[in-house]
Please model this.
Amino acid sequence: MDDIAPPNAPSILMKTYKPPRAENTLVIPVDHSGDGLDVCVFLADKSGVEFKLEGGKMATAQEMHELVVELLELPPMARDLFALWVVSPLLEIQLKPHHVPFRVVQQWPDLLLKYSSASNKEISLDEPVLLFRRNVFFPKNKEMREVRAEECLRLLYAEAKYNVLEGRYPCSAQDCEALAGLQAVAENGTYDSNRHKPSFFKPEQYLPGHLCKSSWLRARPEERIAEQHRLASAKLNVISTQKVLKKYMELVWKLPMYGSAFFVGQIERPAGILGTWIQNPDIRVVVAINAQGVCIVDKEKNEILLLLPFEKLSWEYAEPPCRKKEGCLPCLFVQFQACDRKHSDYTRLLQVFSKQAIMMDAMIESSVLLKTGSVPNTPSSCTVLIYPRLQDVRERLNSALRDVVDKGAGPSALTSAIPAMITKMERLVVSTFDSQGERMKDGCKKQAWRFR
Model:
């Protein structure tokens, strides 16, 4: 993406501002006459900010970002809290300040060929949009402490709600229903038994898809939403929009995947009862990476397979030896310590195959450098990808963590900063290594250390 840069930045003249129209669709309106550009930057709730740029075809992401902040009348911290993205169903990219959105959109088919496994037909039909949403590198702790403005909370709420409903933030049914109750208060006001009957609610607007199905084991989803609406209204003594939004965000902030960048990939599926006689299809996964660590989710079952903080993993990006061979994908190696006490000195190695593996590698390295304080967390600097030796990164990270304890924060503070590790080994195909680095034989599972 670094090759998309402007030779000369234009002078930006904001001509008009039009309120979002209900009939807006997810496209980028472009005026091809001259050098002017009509732009629509969408928000997480699918409303949009429209403006006209003179010389807009050369406008940088930073210049457009400043205009959106100004037009939405957001507080100064929004400049770091939010970023400009180019997003489609096939690929999501947070733009660096010097990127030119118009050029990125023009080169979108080439980017899809490089970073997705989409067919030619899917690529031809894909339409990217400009999206104003959370900067993936903004520290969550700072967000929790300092975000008070209702305008910022609304934007964060809309994005978090989308991620919960789309299953990008896997959480328990209990948490999903509690969030649905707060959403109902935020969008419909205090619970009114005469108005807010179960038939008032459409489950797909409040719950992830897998919780919208009726079951004889529990009440209908409409009834559960209505009950959570009642409970949330009762718990909030004084209901204000800001208070409800903050309460919703406080629950979402606890989720380990909050603030992640999302990538797609695949991992090997463990052999079934027929062993290796039958080739099992790979498990399609979503790899979520944020400032705390890496999370691998089964895309079909919406289930967390592996959750690792950076302090408990090592990683490496690798290209296949036969790059031009069809179906031969790059991969990201993820190595972590065995969870069982019997083999506590062993390590496991998991392979994630994906055309986006190089993006995952860059995201991890940038996040680790931010965690160690090697890079300031401003959009202009944190998105500059630096590739040090893996050993150097690990040494800096371990040194920074030792400093936390040395300065008197104590073990409890260190533990609270590191999320718990989650592994479902029965769902993963891994290679096991002993303390000497020798690969252990495991007759129960296929070898995971290979290219395809």
